[in-house]
Every structure is written in structure tokens, then in C-alpha cells.
Amino acid sequence: MEITIVFQIAAVGILVAVLNQVLIRAGREEQAMMTTLAGLVVVLFWIIQYISNLFETVQTLFRL
Amino acid sequence: MALKILGSILIIASSGLAGLYFAYKPYYRKSDLNSFFIALEILENEINNYSSLIEASFQISQKVSDKNISEIFLYLCEKLKEKNGEETEKIWTDSINKYKSSLYLNQEDYDTIAGMGKILNSFDREIEIKNIAVLKRYILTSIDEINIEYTKNRRMFQSIGFLGGLIIVIALI
What we know:
The complex is a heterodimer.
Chain A: H1 4-25, H2 29-61
Chain B: H1 2-48, H2 53-63, H3 67-82, H4 88-99, H5 107-114, H6 125-172
Helix pairs in contact in B: 1-2, 1-6, 2-3, 3-4
């Protein structure tokens, strides 16, 4: 696993948190929620491959 | 690597500029509406002084400092001088449409201002003045709304533009 993915997720997390705060301060709670969800979807899209690998490893390890 | 950096800079700069555009759009709309307000004040004054519409529109084009608004009234004045049988309402609409792209007004503003063509060159001065008063009230209300919107949303759009660009860059790296 490349370490850059961890930094990328951290960076997206920070930026989404800042955007969320900015939108909430401007009274746009709905857009803030959508931004958070969009960030979550992007990060999930990145890590889905690693989660799949994890399940495969667990299955191999325990011979399931 | 150099291409990546260049692409990142371009994305951040363009989204930042888009953010700035949305942040400062209400400011320029307010400025345009202010100029229209001044134009209406001059028009009202000229109507009270029994001036013709040609004279009034020429006066407005000379006195209003905003170039685009001034051009609208100058176009109206020139077209009225030609006297080729066109209706004043149509000339006014054409004039507005001609300079629409250089103004920051929204559709509601255009519709209201274009509706002014119906009252221009009317025989009844009282009705003209009353309609101008209604338009002036609309402009003042819009300016108040813009002031609230501008102070509320300016920072938000600036931040969204810049941060959105950063998120796109991080997602694409």
C-alpha cells in the first residue's frame, strides 16, 4: 500500500472539514452535508480496493 | 511532474477565479442598479421639466458615469432621433438586449427594466412618474437584498473556489 493515499485522505478530510465550517457559517447546512457526503464517497472510492484486499487476505488466512 | 504542477496551478487558479466571480457578482450588480437608479432620477427630473424623451435620454447618457448604462440611453436617443416609425418600447428592449452581456443584472432585473419601455414616451406624465417611482422602489429593495447577500456570501464563495480547486487537485494526483 502506498503511503501517499493516507496523506491524500488526510488532506481531503481537512479541506472538507474547512468547507463544511465555511458553508455552515454561511447558513447553508444542506450544501455542507452534501460536501461531507461527497468527500466520504471520494475517499471510499479510493479505499474500496484496499478493503477488498483485506477481505481476501482474511479469507486466505482463515481458509474460509 | 512539471506537467502535474502546472495542471494543479491551473485548476486552483481557475476555480479560485470562479469563486471570486461569484463572490463579487452581487457587488457589480449593485453598481449597475445604482446607475439605473440615477438614470431614473434624471429621467423623472426631465419629465417634470417637460423635456422630450430624446432630450431626457441624451441628458442621462451624459450624466450617468457607468459607461454601459450611458450607452443604453445614448442608443435610445440616437434611435429616437432617426424617427423611422419604430415603437419606443421596441427600441428600449433592443437597447437593453444590445448591452445585456456587459451588465451584471439578473433575469428579474432585465424583465423589470425592459418593462420600463411601456411607460416611456407616454402622454400621461403622472403615470410615467408613478411607474418610475415603482421601478425606483424595486431597485432600492434589490440593493438592500444585495447588501445582505453580498456580506453573507462573499467569503463563502471565495473559500469554496479555492478549497474546491485544492480538493480537485488532491483527488486527481
